[in-house]
Design goal:
This protein is of the alpha/beta class. The protein has 18 helices and 19 strands.
């Protein structure tokens, strides 16, 4: 059987940085060529970054992407890499689609191309366009209608883009009809918890359906609220895993494959789902037989806690670095949320680039002040204390506030102070709110909700505790100092805005609350379903009402890394002005 050395590069692209992304493609192509690769692949829209959102509707950006692709092909050839075919994702436009109502302006395409000897020898657009969750691809793109096949050293390689594997039909059965020896899919599939298991089973199933080896190259890194975990996979025609790349690590997987030879009378024309085979022959003759040297390897899987923690670190690092910041600022209360955010920031950016400020009020306990200082000592982050008591007294002397207004004033004074320090010193402020609090509106607008990024925005409170314990345990196993003080984990959560206040004064126990929220927010189940699941009717009614009334607050919260199947943001889009209430519909 013909042999082929395949290189899959899971890289971190930045949206709009065409020059920087092209530089990364050249760098990793050279790396792959030095290892003797015969075919090199990069992720979906690697040249433009992903997702480009409404940039796809801007003709200037589309043309810049097309120009960058052609320039990349020439540069690869000029630098002696032109003999190695390179598959790379980019933004294109259809030459044939006519303007019509309901079609994206300019007919953009989520496309990929094969570069060889300085030329773009094959272009193709994504066939299946996702339009669920965070995806709006029917808004942005027109569908591809071909089955692209490139013949490399006597092997027919069918090409696909991400959703082409996730949906039934289309290019997978078409590849079988075309008698392809390999399916190569380029992807930018965002991370969410447990998706790595789903992804593996998907690739194995599609390989069996196509009847050929299947390679899945994935993006790594972060873009706004999305994080990409890499985890590129290669399986053979029976579904056996041949190689699997590390999670949350940029790099290249190289492996030798033995693949069926291309048929002399390989099918042409239209195959499954009306797809037309578009075949390009780059090299007809198989390579002389050689001893396989590289197997790709199988990277160890992260456990659930480390996987989620790693995703949060990667997402935070990407947001800070890609937006041109060098340091972050966190209000340290001594509580679990700000402690976890501080640990994440130190791991993402290094403690020298993390600034914490304790802002005690008249109601701040001594232990909370001490816990904030102890966190700083353990992590090595920059720390200062600025009391808000004088500001609070000045406000209260001018305006007679009581109750909730008095409590919120403290939070807003802290928010104002954080933003003032950010403006003065150039730090990016991190908001410490978790998903449980955001769900029920347990946050203060222009107070603890201020900031440019919310690292744990999609993390329920029970997971906040779980991740804090994991991070401390991981430090102990490495012989390091656990970053989070035990008292921050063990003490009852409290906003400390009035004497003796604890979260359970206003909220159910977090174990119960998070169960309700996961069913209502993440799974879209209604009140009757929650009660049928054994949850208390009155508690469900009260909780759902809090969630519904807090939509306006969530709309004003900063972005944050998405780790669940449905995060607050693009995933969950509900009207603010909305009289439908699950809890009162009877």
């Amino acid at each position: 059987m013909p042999q082929l050395r395949l290189a899959l590069n899971q890289i971190d692209s930045t949206v709009g940085d065409l020059a920087g992304n092209a530089e990364a493609v050249v760098h990793w192509t050279r790396h792959a060529a030095e290892q003797g690769a015969h075919l090199v692949a990069f992720p979906e829209m690697a040249l433009t970054g992903y997702p480009v959102e409404d940039l796809a509707l801007r003709s200037s950006f589309v043309e810049a992407s097309r120009d960058a692709l052609r320039a990349l092909g020439r540069r690869l050839a000029d630098e002696g890499l032109g003999e190695t075919p390179v598959v790379v994702g980019y933004l294109d436009r259809s030459e044939r689609a006519q303007p019509r109502l309901g079609r994206p302006a300019g007919s953009p395409e989520n496309a990929a191309a094969v570069l060889h000897r300085g030329e773009v020898v094959l272009r193709f657009a994504k066939h299946h366009l996702p339009n669920y969750g965070v995806f709006d691809e029917y808004r942005y793109f027109v569908q591809g209608d071909t089955l692209p096949v490139v013949r490399v050293h006597g092997v027919d390689v069918a090409l696909a883009i991400c959703e082409d594997l996730w949906q039934d039909g289309g290019r997978v059965p078409a590849a079988r009809s075309a008698r392809a020896g390999l399916i190569l899919s380029v992807n930018a599939s965002p991370y969410e918890r447990n998706k790595d298991d789903t992804r593996l089973e998907l690739v194995r199933r599609r390989a069996c359906e196509a009847g050929c080896t299947t390679a899945y190259v994935a993006m790594m890194g972060g873009q706004d609220e999305l994080v990409f975990d890499g985890d590129s996979i290669v399986v053979d025609a029976s579904g056996e895993v041949l190689a699997r790349a590390p999670q949350f690590t940029e790099g290249c997987v190289v492996l030798d494959l033995e693949l069926p030879a291309a048929l002399p009378d390989a099918p042409t024309g239209v195959v499954d789902d009306g797809l037309r085979i578009d075949r390009v022959v780059l090299s007809e003759e198989p390579l002389p037989a050689y001893e396989p040297e590289v197997t790709g390897g199988y990277a160890d899987r992260l456990d659930d806690d480390e996987e989620v923690y790693s995703a949060l670190v990667v997402g935070l690092r990407a947001y800070v670095n890609k937006n041109g910041f060098r340091s972050v600022l966190i209000g340290l209360s001594g509580g679990i949320d700000s402690a976890l955010v501080a640990a994440l920031a130190c791991d993402a950016l290094g403690p020298a680039n993390v600034h914490g400020v304790s802002m005690p009020s008249p109601y701040s306990s001594d232990h909370s002040r001490a816990d904030a200082a102890e966190l700083a000592r353990r992590t090595g982050l920059n720390f200062r204390t600025v009391s808000i008591e004088p500001m609070f007294d000045a406000y209260m002397g001018s305006v007679g506030l009581t109750g909730l207004a008095e409590e919120n004033l403290q939070a807003r004074l802290r928010g104002t102070l954080l933003m003032a320090l950010s403006n003065q010193e150039g730090h990016l402020v991190l908001a410490p709110g978790n998903k449980s609090e955001l769900a029920v509106g347990y946050s203060t607008l222009y107070g603890d909700a201020v900031g440019a990024f919310g690292p744990i925005k999609d993390v329920y409170k029970t997971w906040v505790f779980r991740l804090a314990r994991w991070r401390n345990r991981a430090a102990e196993e490495r012989g390091q100092t656990p970053p989070i003080p035990e008292n921050s984990i063990s003490k009852p959560p409290s906003a400390e805005l009035r004497p003796g206040q604890v979260d359970t004064d206003s909220l159910p126990d977090y174990e119960v609350l998070d169960r309700i929220l996961e069913l209502y927010v993440d799974r879209d189940q209604g009140r009757d379903e929650l009660v049928a699941a054994g949850l208390d009717d009155a508690l469900v009614t009260r909780t759902l009402r809090m969630v519904d009334l807090a939509e306006y607050k969530r709309r004003q919260y900063p972005p944050g890394t998405k780790i669940s199947a449905k995060g607050f943001g693009k995933d969950r889009r509900l009207p603010i002005t909305n009289r439908w209430r699950e809890a009162t519909r009877d």
